[in-house]
Specification:
This protein has 756 residues and is of the alpha/beta class. The chain has 17 helices and 14 strands. It has helices spanning 44-54, 106-111, 139-148, 161-168, 172-182, 186-293, 296-332, 338-361, 365-392, 396-483, 489-492, 516-533, 538-602, 660-677, 694-707, 720-725, 747-755, and strands at residues 2-9, 18-21, 33-37, 84-92, 115-123, 128-132, 135-137, 158-160, 606-612, 640-646, 682-686, 712-716, 728-734, 740-745. The strands form three sheets. It has a six-stranded antiparallel beta sheet with strand order 2-1-4-5-6-7. A six-stranded mixed beta sheet has the order 8-11-12-3-13-14, sandwiched between helices. It starts with a strand and ends with a helix. Bound molecules: adenosine-5'-triphosphate.
């Protein structure tokens, strides 16, 4: 990296926009050397000031001002003051990195870009700004960038005349810090300070987290205990619910099944009753029809009534015939044994009377049949008796009369036979009708019995169904009460349809490993356990949730902080080690180089750097009183660096006794050593050689030239030997407008000019 150019406008005496291009390279691979020359007060040092300022210099003393706005062009008799000072420093990267840069550090990105432009502006109203490659940046960004680019903030990049002495008169601790910077460990120290700052903040946060955790922990413990009880309660409740669901479910299921079966059976019985009732009605109808057609008994009686006069007529005719025969017999044969005839007739007459009486009283067919037989027998006896009589008497008239009577008898007999025929027919039809009626009546009786039995069966089933439905209702109420639910439908899952009332939830009534009695006892046990746990405020759960989340968050934060603390301590330790190693390495080299340059400049002598460990105050000895009048000794708590510088032949105890020139030479030797060991990309030397005599000026020019092997130089000087080595020489002039102007001059002119 090297300095390409500087643009100044409105800064101190540079009112006009001024661009200074720097020598980039010297001969033989050396770095560029630019000399700035000019008369006193022309504004040469203002260029060095501009460089310091743009690189973030905050010290007004370093900038040779009292107020920050003193850097803005303040005007002159011929030129009015300006409202803003602006300086831009252009750095070139010789080997811009093409490697991908992590976006973690935008400074790294800028550091690897081909050109880095740092700009600082200040307005009269006090507002100021920094830009990095045209973008607004913070001073800390500029500091970090410069530290990383090894461009010193403390003065090893822009070294003014006054600083030469100052460096020697610094305290050992300050000197140590200066060498830290020279050792290129400033950025590590910035990191370390940052880590320490973070560590402090982390520890502060840790303390706060500890306090908060200590506050929350007991409360959380108490809440956790309560919540644990609650979760036990929930587990018991869940167990109870499952058990109840199984127990009551299986009860419900079995009653439900019974009800379903009974319902089915009832409706079957209902149907059977209805069917048989239809049959019964059909039989009834048939019976009614039969009853209406039953008239035969009445006609039989009519026939019997018809017989009576016929028998009477026949008897009358027979009596007549008997009379005729008796008369004939009397007339024909006086010796006829009248007594026997009369006796026969009387006997027949008596039998006939008895038969008539029987006919009159007969009701059944059997009786009529007997009467018929008896009548036939009687008829035979009469015929026999008539034959007896007829043989005895023959009388014509009698015979004629008798024939007439017998014809009448014959006619009556024929009529009786016809009626008797009718009676016989009528009684056969009635018999058949009756037997059909009775059979139907029996059938009716049987059917009535069946219907009655079926009705009672149906009634019983209906009663059972009603009882079962009542049990189902009771168990439902019990389930609702025991399981504390409004509706059991969800338990049945899918029983929304009241008609089917299905149970589709397999969990409801799932098989139990224990008997129903055991399950019931188990349920009671669980209920007792729940009662002994008691109710828990739901607020507790909410508070526990919140507290646990808060505790967890805090605990996580606490753990993160502990781990961060550990990492920061580790980082601090690592940085300490790195810094220590880097410092001692650089310190040793600087010490060697210091001696070398010292000997060149003094043409001999001794010089070295001494590292001073921090001092520890002695511990007061027990029993010994500290002297209250003894002056309080200041102990150095931080490490320091001491300088030993002995010009040839002199035994110098302290650098304070060195002459101004000797001091300048010593400081130049030290600065040269620092530049040699850890070169900044460029170094501005502002009249550091002012106090040197001719021969030392030559040595100084040689040293600067030697160091161009390591770094680029911008030298404000009156030293013509230095000018001779420069690639570019600028002359600074100031006209009567009190504005500095720059003009590039050829080397010969400058050398001639400076030698005039
Ligand atoms: P020497 O060789 O004597 O050290 P120099 O060339 O280094 O001199 P500088 O110190 O750079 O000179 O410039 C000093 C000049 O700058 C003075 O004339 C001073 O008035 C002028 N100057 C300083 N600040 C301002 C300002 N804010 N506005 C205008 N001019 C200023």
């Amino acid at each position: 990296m090297y300095l390409q150019r500087l643009e100044i406008q409105g800064f101190k005496s540079f009112a006009n926009k001024t661009t200074i291009l720097f020598s980039e390279q010297g001969e033989g691979g050396r770095r560029g050397l630019t000399a700035i020359v000019g008369p006193n007060g022309s504004g040469k040092s203002n260029i060095a000031d501009a460089m310091r300022w743009v690189m973030g210099e905050q010290s007004l003393k370093q900038l040779r001002g009292k107020k920050s706005e003193d850097v803005i062009f303040s005007g002159s008799d011929k030129r009015s003051k300006m409202g803003m000072a602006e300086v831009s420093l252009f750095l070139k990267n010789e080997h811009p990195s093409t490697a991908s840069v992590t976006d973690e550090d935008s400074i790294e990105t800028i550091l690897t870009s081909p050109e880095i432009v740092i700009t600082r502006r200040l307005f009269r109203d006090g507002t100021s700004e920094y830009l990095l490659n045209g973008n607004r940046a913070r001073l800390s960004d500029i500091n970090l960038l410069l530290a990383k680019a090894n461009i010193g903030e403390r003065g090893f990049t822009v070294i003014g005349q006054g600083m030469i002495d100052q460096f020697l008169f610094l305290s050992p601790e300050e000197r140590k810090e200066a060498i830290d910077e020279a050792a290129g460990i400033r950025h590590l120290q910035i990191k370390k300070n940052e880590a320490e700052r973070k560590l402090d903040a982390t520890r502060e946060n840790l303390r706060e987290a500890e306090i908060l955790l200590a506050e929350i922990e007991p409360r959380l413990r108490s809440l956790s205990r309560q919540v644990k009880r609650l979760s036990e309660r929930e587990a018991l409740e869940s167990e109870l619910k499952t058990l109840q669901s199984k127990h009551y479910g299986s009860l419900y299921r079995s009653i439900h099944r019974e009800a379903q079966n009974l319902k089915r059976a009832s409706s079957q019985a209902e149907k059977a009753v209805a069917d048989k009732e239809v049959d019964l009605r059909a039989i009834q109808n048939k019976l009614n029809t039969l009853e209406k057609t039953e008239t035969s008994s009445a006609s039989l009686l009519d026939f019997q009534k018809e017989l009576e006069p016929l028998h009477a007529e026949r008897q009358r005719l027979r009596d007549r015939a008997f009379e005729i025969r008796v008369a004939a017999e009397r007339s024909k044969n006086a010796q006829l044994p009248m007594a026997a005839v009369i006796a026969g007739i009387e006997s027949i007459h008596a039998d006939e009377q008895s038969l008539l009486s029987k006919i009159h009283n007969a009701t059944t067919l059997e009786e009529l049949e007997a009467i018929k037989t008896a009548a036939a027998a009687l008829d035979a006896r009469i015929t026999e008796l008539l034959g007896t009589i007829r043989g005895e008497t023959r009388n014509k008239e009698n015979e004629k009369n008798l024939a007439e009577v017998e014809r009448g008898i014959h006619e009556v007999n024929a009529k009786i036979n016809a009626v008797q025929e009718k009676i016989a027919n009528a009684s056969k039809g009635e018999r058949e009708q009756k037997s059909a009626f009775f059979a139907l009546q029996r059938e009716y009786q049987n059917m009535l019995e069946i219907v009655t039995r079926l009705r009672s069966d149906l009634g019983e089933r209906r009663i059972s169904l009603a009882k079962t439905e009542q049990r189902l209702e009771d168990i439902e109420s019990e389930i609702k009460a025991e399981m504390q639910i409004e509706d059991i439908a969800p338990l049945l899952a899918g029983a929304a349809d009241e008609e089917t009332n299905k149970i589709e939830n397999p969990a409801f009534g799932a098989p139990l490993p224990e008997s129903p009695e055991e399950a019931y006892r188990h349920i009671q046990r669980l209920k007792q356990q729940l009662a002994s746990i008691g109710g828990i405020d739901p607020e507790v759960v909410r508070e526990h949730g919140e507290t646990a989340v808060r505790y967890e968050t805090l605990k996580t934060q606490y753990d993160d902080l502990i781990s961060a603390e550990g990492k920061l301590l580790e980082l601090g330790k690592e940085l300490d080690e790195t810094i220590g190693r880097a410092f001692h390495e650089a310190f040793k080299k600087i010490s060697v180089e210091f001696e070398k340059f010292f000997r060149i400049l003094f043409n001999g002598g001794n010089a070295k750097l001494i590292y001073l460990e921090p001092e520890t105050a002695p511990q007061p000895v027990e029993g010994e009183e500290a002297d209250p009048n003894a002056p309080a000794k200041q102990y150095r708590t931080r490490p320091g660096v001491d300088i030993v510088a002995q010009p040839p032949g002199k035994r110098v105890k302290s650098i304070n006794v060195l002459s101004g020139g000797e001091r300048a030479l010593t400081a130049i030797a030290l600065i040269s050593a620092i530049i040699a060991v850890n070169p900044s990309p460029f170094v501005v030397l502002d009249e550091v050689d002012a106090a040197l005599d001719e021969s030392n000026s030559i040595r100084f020019a040689d040293i600067v030239y030697e160091l161009t092997g390591k770094t680029q130089f911008i030298v404000v000087t009156h030293n013509r030997y230095t000018m001779e080595r420069a690639g570019i020489i600028y002359g600074v002039t100031m006209g009567d407008d009190a504005v500095s102007k720059i003009l590039s001059i050829r080397l010969e002119e400058a050398v001639i000019g400076s030698t005039k």
